[in-house]
Fold these 2 entries.
Entry 1:
Amino acid sequence: MAPPIRILGISAYYHDSAAVLLADGKLVAAVSEERFTRKKGDSSFPAHAVQYCLRQGGIGIDDLDSVGFYEKPILKFDRILETFVGAVPRGFAQFRVGAPLLIREKLWLDRELRAALGGYEGDLLYAEHHESHAASAFYPSPFDAAAILTMDGVGEWATGSFGVGRGPDMQLLKEMRWPDSLGLLYSAVTYYLGFKVNSGEHKVMGLAPYGEPRYAQRIYDHLLDLRDDGSFRLNQEYFGYVNGLTMTNGKFHRLFDGPPRLPETKLTQKDMDLARSIQDVCEEIVMRMARTVHRETGLENLCLAGGVAFNCVANGRLLREGPFQRLWIQPAAGDAGGALGVAYLLWHRHFAQPRTPRGDRDSMQGAYVGPGFTDSEVATFLAGAGAVYRRIERDALLAATARRLADGQIVGWFNGRMECGPRALGARSILCDPRSPRMQAHLNLKIKLREGFRPFAPSVLRERVSDYFELEGDSPYMQIVAPVREARRIAMTAEQRSLWGIDLLNVARSDIPAVTHVDYSARVHTVERDVSPDFYDLIREFEKLTGCAVLVNTSFNVRGEPIVCTPADAYACFMRTHIDALVIGPFLLDKADQPAWSEGGAWRQQIPLD
């Protein structure tokens, strides 16, 4: 029997660097570099991620048949250089800052990659940025044929594209080009609202329901020329990203009645209204694009990727109102997923391999393709850390954990292999009772250490989703926002209806208030037993005790840090916050039993990953 064809996919040097390993087309491993370095959004070469992928595959670098990089550096260099030249003299400051980095990391990337891979001498191939996004959307999907829509900030030249996938073949048909970009438009408002670009966009989405779309028409009138087919032109007189070092400029600030909000300062009603306005505009553009793609392809399935695909409010509206029958959204839709896309492109194009989708399930394995740890490794770490823990048989452990959740405790849940992508899906999660009306504020302020307005997601048994949410289908990767069922909503009193903005935060909106946002919506995560048996059975145990088949599920981390990867990461987060209990594999730890916390203790030595 011939050895499997092994392909390593890499994304790096912009944000969210990652590595992926395929063996004969099967996803062996996928992980972002940030999980190892603990630097959120780490853009450096994913050395740790590559080491993990090779180790998970049981191979060395010389055993690879090909390495793929998720974009074409020469094309990207052309776009950046042309932008600099076109912006002279205003763009000279940007050129002076960026030119040395561009020459090192774009023009000489082949040499840099081979050196970073330890002198790798095999095939090193490149795909275009939006090809990689499109491939990550279509190839792992359950569909034999589907339309594909990608939307983000910018790749080489493209800022969005659509195409068609059939069997092993995928073709992009049209694209939008720099500097007209839905991702950059949304990021410009993110910047103006005082949040960090490339990581704060989800905060804008979460803030939007507190506001009214008072600025939407101003955006349409001044910032963009939107056409019926969803294409548009941005008025660059209002933006600074082409010829400056900021997203917005003085004219943008005057349009919206003042300078950008300073980070960490109090949010005003204006900020909430602007968040709502850009969210409404984003949804309208996505809906127009989707209708155009449906009309031009005639297909009933749609696959999404690119950073805009993380806008789960737009995704939910597209599912409810759009022309497509079924959606599939790549769980690592951003640049990290580009590593997956280029690996699949090499498998199906370069190696001309067939594709046999299942139809009823994708090939992402629930996204549980990151690092995992054996029980003995976990026990060794816990003993070395001086932790107090008990090993409990599975069913008893699930019952004990469910009891703690039903009693109002917050539980750190570390189970199996880590998820790829930014969502916690029951492998590296913080869990609690959704029935508590104060749990959202408590989680934000005491556990996550983040803004109080941020909503939390429900994990719900797949077969029970329609009992709680207006969602016919599934959302396995927490990428769809759906309304809470009318029967579960709590009507507002006359006094409550007079409240505005952030004052609405503590008004219970349903019988699962901790996961019900102020507009009666929720970002839904559906859980199936054959994909995530331990997490599924934990929710079942909770339902037996409470009658509720839903848990609050948020990522196991605090603000500004990546999701925990190792037992050491999990224990540190557990001890530094108000998490009451920690479950790592078969081990249960209660906070009250633990020794005094030492931030720099010797226990912080990680379990070796290389």
Entry 2:
Amino acid sequence: MTISARSFTQMNDNDSTNKKTAPVHRNMFGYGIPRGLTKTSEGLADGYILFAVPNSPFVDLINRKGEVVHQWKSNYGVFEAYLQDDGSLFQAVDDPDFPVFGCCGPYGRIQKISWDGKILWDYEYANEQHIAHHDFAVMPNGHILAIAYEVMPYDKAIAMGRKPELTPKSGPWTEEIVEIVPDGMTGGKIVWEWHLWDHLIQDADSKKSDYGNVADHPELLDFNLGAPLPPPITQGALDTLIAKGMAHRNSTLDNRGSDIFHFNAIKYNADLDQIVFSSPNISEIYIIDHSTTTQEAAGHKGGRYGKGGDFLYRWGNPQNYKRGDSTNRTLFGQHDIRWIEKGTPGAGDLTVFNNHPPGEIDWSNMGTTGKNYSMVYEFAPPIDKKGNYIIEKGKPYGPEKPVWFYRAADTLSFYSSFISGAQRMPNGNTFINEGAKGRFFEVTPQGEIVWEYLNPYHGNIREPNGDSIPAMPMPFFEFRGNFIPANHPALANRKLEPIVPQPSVFILPPPTTDK
């Protein structure tokens, strides 16, 4: 069951208790907030929470009491993990020495690890041309769909119509999606691939390739989207940022601003044979056809839906294809796009973790606020009887607004400007990962919080040279947490009792003063 955005808003507006409650815990990173289990309720759905402990090789499984009942241990720092039916995990881990790429979520290595911690597969996808980053999806056949940065030389970017003032000297990092079949202990065979640079358009220079009318081609991405390059700095200033942990070891003066689109989430729908992914840098989500061959995926025809590798659907910011203005925009730096699973309330719709800037959009009818805040949307793309996404001539893709959303009643206490996610639960509630704070909580369709837990753990992995990795500013961050129902096949006949001793909680060290 879902409720409209307007009815949920009216419910909160009529709640005098919510109106009188002062915003609490505005700090986005969760400093000084009680951690561990902070709220529970009677009648919760039976299940567990799976999450990677930041800066550590551990993935924890906790029960509804907040107790760790199982741990998987890798040999690298774990970024995110997905549970498989046999109790194993596929997980993204930080490759310690990847080259070139200097920021923005690269990890470079995907592993499969058994229930008892044995590494079954350890695959590196990191070299000077590309690196796996942010999210990946596990297909029903065990193949991996991974997002990866792909280096585009400066000259090629300019030849394709990217404006010089938007292009770093080392060239931009565009995006690719690769389907990997695990092969042996460390091998992987790429059996399908999709490259963003095959689906670009630009209207800045008629003498360059990919020139066209952007508004006439919503199936393509305007190559000149994205923020301007950051202001130039000196090498000394960059060295200082690297030393303080505020810039990556691979950062250079020439690659600052290379991450132009920053895909950060991917999911696969086997029934539709479609892939959905997200670009927070330009505030849109996209759906493409996976039924194509790799050759068809590089073109504009073929596949189940007849459009090759072009976008079947996009949503969130129609200004990107010049079919709307700021009043039509619904997404702002969003994360974790996913389909609601079959057998779950809202099945077939999509959920997304959104970040809202100060001010309002027309459909919300909410109270004014001068601060950024986060929301979770459920929305339903318009589809015709043949399964094609509907778009009217000259108009943007719908819908105009979500069918349901959640936001904090005070608009301020729920906010994470990056990472984070949301997942519809089998009972119709929504599990939310407020990533920067390391906060997991469950809300009902009416917006009531019925369970809350804040990750209290942080590891002590070090740099390859032995240097410590600063805990600040994100000691408890969680890129992706997932609710695991108690009837998940992986948990069948498992003895899930609190481990003894429980892991030690992390205590923030006192602040240091630079001399």
